[in-house]
Structure formats: structure tokens, C-alpha cells
């Protein structure tokens, strides 16, 4: 039987168990995939710990690539042997094989291998919706991007540089700062040594930035608001340091009539057309060479617990892939 990483309770990495699972024939609108690469993302930690509640037991994971083995009734766009990738629900990508709704799958173009695809779909499409839809960044603008050396951050730095945007990034070590800078981040602030609010104000001549992209959450929330110019947009898309506490909306008025949004990839790719448009623009950036996807860490699927430990300890940079 094929194996999968499943959790029966919320908790630390030790709750991840590699177990045999039964994978049947695809039903209407479904395909059966043999997965060759699985993406590791911080949202997987949220599901494991219960910060984002899921029904248990469950197989974790939201992103993978592989080949179609069989198609169910009503599936016309795909056929056995097609190379495909996906990001988003339903959960279950930490598996050697799985059933998946065909509407959530995207065919891979020639020139993008499956390991690269598994490393970029969730993070790359996240960047696409953040910088092209949530706030459509314009050439010549300056933005603040927290965790610039993370998987999403490194893609964003490259894409924004290609658009002619100045990126102010934050990182926790000199090594991560150098990595972000090498990927197009114009100014990198080591938040362990520098006050990022003061540095952003200095770098923008006191004006602040029109948009802050923040996946850190609790630790950076207040400071991020102070980096915005009047009527600026705070984009909170993650909680790596913990969830943002309840917000007094009056603070937004006091700090300059600010806007706040909490977007999700699932919302921005809810329709088939939205998904294909988002993935298509990502593929264009990668195939053109503007964005290079770097798989800096790989782990056997059975060692997912160690991969989670390293991710939470901030020992990883760029993309992390589990190999079935």
C-alpha cells in the first residue's frame, strides 16, 4: 500500500506518522496521482498544531507535483501520464499517491520539472496574488517584505525586482540578509540588530511605504503599521510568530487611515479561471528566467517530522521539498 504522513492529534512534529493508506479509483471529476515531489509550507505547521483547525485524522499538505495515473468520469482536460501540480485544498499532499479533484490541477509546461513545481506552486501563486491582485505594485514603488529570505520572500524579491520595484526586506541573520539581497532585495534589515521601523522611515525619507507584506504576525504587527504611509495597506498573510491579537480599529485611524487585509490563496484561486490565470503568470515568470526557484532543502517524505522541526527553528531558506 502507498504511504502517507497522517496526524491523529494536534501537537509538535512528533504527531506526524508515516502510515499505509488505501487509495481507490478516482470518482467523478477526480484523478489518481502518483506524486513525485511534495512542497513543505508553513501553513502545514498551522494545521499540525491546530492554529488552523482541521478534521482529524488527516493527511497533511497542500502542494505537490506528479503524474496522473487514472482519471474518473467527466474528466476531459487530463489523461494518464500528464505531468501536473497543485496548491490548495483539499489537504492530503504528504502522500505517495492520492485522489485529487481535477479542477485543482494544472498541467506543467515543458521546462518546469516536478520537483521545481512542488517547490513553487503555493509560494509562487501566493506572490502572484499578493503583488498583482491584493495590491498591484507599480514600477518605482517601494514595499516592505518581512521574512525576505523565506520561500515566499525569495520569489517575491525576484519578481518585484523584475517589475522595477524597490524592496525593503527583513531577515534574522546576516546569512539570510545576504541571501535576500542576492535575490533582488534592495535593502535588507537585520531585525535582531536594527529597529526595522526606524530603518524603513530612514530609507523612505520619513514617508513610509504604500504596502507591507507580513507573514510573521504577532511580533511585527505594530511595527508594520508604523511603516505605512497614510492610507497605506497592511497585508497580513501569515502567523509565523503567532496570531495577531485583537485589533482596535481606532488605531488604524490614528496611524493614517490605514487599510488592512487578510487574504488567502484559496480565495484568489477559487474558480478554475482564477487558478489558471494565477498559475499561468507564475509559469511565465519562471520560464522567462525572471524568477528562479531554488530547492535548498529536501527530505524523504517519511522524515517530514524533521523537516517541520527545521522549518520552525528557521533553519531553512528558500523552498523545501519532501520526496515520496
Question: What features would you describe in this structure?
Answer:
- The protein folds into 2 domains: about 5-120 and about 275-324, Quinone Oxidoreductase, Chain A, domain 1 (Alpha-Beta Complex), CATH 3.90.180; about 140-260, Rossmann fold, CATH 3.40.50.720.
- The chain is built from 10 helices and 16 strands.
- It has helices at about 40-50, 115-135, 150-160, 175-180, 195-205, 220-225, 250-255, 265-270, 270-290, 305-310; strands spanning about 5, 15-20, 30-40, 60, 65-70, 85, 95-100, 105, 140-145, 165-170, 185-190, 210-215, 230-235, 260, 295-300, 320-324.
- α2 (about 115-135) packs across α3 (about 150-160).
- The longest helix is centred in the middle third of the chain and has 21 residues, at about 115-135.
- The mean pLDDT is about 95.
Poorly predicted tracts of residues: none
User: What is the class of the largest domain in the CATH system?
Assistant: Alpha Beta
Number of domains: 2
Number of strands: 16
* Total DSSP helices: 10
GO cellular component, one term: cytosol
InterPro entries: ADH-like_C, ADH-like_N, ER, GroES-like_sf, NAD(P)-bd_dom_sf, QOR-like, Quin_OxRdtase/zeta-crystal_CS
Catalytic activity: 2 a quinone + NADPH + H(+) = 2 a 1,4-benzosemiquinone + NADP(+)
Protein name: NADPH:quinone reductase
Topology diagram in text:
Blueprint (H helix, E strand, L loop, with lengths): L2 E5 L9 E4 L9 E11 L1 H8 L8 E2 L3 E9 L11 E5 L9 E5 L4 E2 L6 H21 L7 E4 L5 H12 L3 E6 L2 H9 L4 E4 L5 H8 L5 E6 L6 H6 L1 E9 L12 H6 L4 E3 L3 H4 L3 H17 L6 E6 L3 H9 L6 E5 L1
Amino acid at each position: 500500500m502507498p504511504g502517507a504522513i497522517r496526524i491523529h492529534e494536534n501537537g509538535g512534529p512528533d504527531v506526524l506518522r508515516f502510515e499505509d493508506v488505501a487509495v481507490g479509483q478516482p470518482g467523478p471529476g477526480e484523478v489518481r496521482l502518483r506524486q513525485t515531489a511534495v512542497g513543505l509550507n508553513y501553513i502545514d505547521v498551522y494545521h499540525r498544531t491546530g492554529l488552523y483547525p482541521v478534521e482529524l485524522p488527516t493527511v497533511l499538505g497542500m502542494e505537490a507535483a506528479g503524474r496522473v495515473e487514472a482519471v474518473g468520469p467527466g474528466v476531459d482536460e487530463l489523461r494518464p501520464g500528464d505531468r501536473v501540480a497543485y496548491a490548495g485544498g483539499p489537504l492530503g499532499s504528504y502522500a505517495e499517491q492520492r485522489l485529487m479533484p481535477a479542477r485543482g490541477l494544472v498541467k506543467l509546461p515543458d521546462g518546469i520539472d516536478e520537483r521545481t513545481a512542488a517547490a513553487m506552486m503555493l509560494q509562487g501563486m501566493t506572490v502572484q496574488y499578493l503583488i498583482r491582485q491584493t495590491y498591484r505594485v507599480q514600477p518605482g514603488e517601494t514595499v516592505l517584505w518581512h521574512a525576505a529570505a523565506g520561500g515566499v520572500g525569495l520569489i517575491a524579491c525576484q519578481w518585484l525586482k523584475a517589475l522595477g520595484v524597490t524592496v525593503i526586506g527583513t531577515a534574522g541573520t546576516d546569512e539570510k540578509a545576504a541571501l535576500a539581497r542576492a535575490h533582488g532585495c534592495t535593502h535588507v534589515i537585520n531585525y535582531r540588530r536594527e529597529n526595522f521601523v526606524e530603518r524603513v522611515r530612514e530609507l523612505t525619507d520619513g514617508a513610509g511605504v504604500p504596502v507591507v507584506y507580513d507573514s510573521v504576525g504577532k511580533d511585527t504587527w505594530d511595527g508594520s503599521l508604523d511603516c505605512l504611509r497614510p492610507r497605506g495597506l497592511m497585508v497580513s498573510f501569515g502567523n509565523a510568530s503567532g496570531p495577531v491579537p485583537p485589533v482596535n480599529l481606532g488605531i488604524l485611524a490614528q496611524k493614517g487611515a490605514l487599510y488592512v487585509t487578510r487574504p488567502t490563496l484559496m480565495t484568489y484561486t477559487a474558480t478554475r479561471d482564477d487558478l489558471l490565470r494565477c498559475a499561468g503568470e507564475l509559469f511565465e515568470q519562471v520560464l522567462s528566467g525572471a524568477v528562479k526557484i531554488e530547492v535548498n532543502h529536501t527530505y524523504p517524505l517519511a522524515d517530514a517530522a524533521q523537516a517541520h522541526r527545521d522549518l520552525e527553528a528557521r533553519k531553512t531558506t528558500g523552498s523545501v521539498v519532501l520526496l515520496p
